[in-house]
Design a protein that fits this description.
This protein has 103 residues and is α+β, with helices and mostly antiparallel strands. It is built from 3 helices and 4 strands.
Length: 103
């Protein structure tokens, strides 16, 4: 009973909120970063940031069936990116934009 309730709480806290523009996507753990990036790109999702785990990306899926295409590209799970905030690297930017942490 304890394990079942722990799994239920975890699933509810990781669940993508309705109307979310950005989601975290977990691809198979044996995938390298290149394969996960190619899979996200094939689903027409914009890469927001990478994490310390190569198969875990934060992306902005396309509005028209983007989550469905991510699953078709090999995603195992989509979740709220706040739930995986501890997986971010200290220097995880993609080299674009204005990173305010360095000011």
């Amino acid at each position: 009973m304890l394990i079942a309730s722990w799994i239920a709480v975890a699933m509810l806290s990781l669940q993508v909120r309705a109307g979310s523009d950005v989601v975290a996507v977990a691809f198979p753990p044996w995938w390298r970063a290149e394969r996960a990036l190619l899979a996200a790109a094939s689903a027409n999702a914009s890469i927001v940031r990478m994490t310390a785990i190569p198969a875990l990306l934060v992306v902005r899926p396309d509005r028209d069936g983007g989550l469905r295409r991510l699953y078709e590209a090999g995603a195992l799970l989509t979740m709220d990116p706040q739930a995986i905030a501890g997986c971010f690297k200290a220097d995880d930017d993609l080299g674009v934009g204005n990173d305010l942490r360095r000011r």
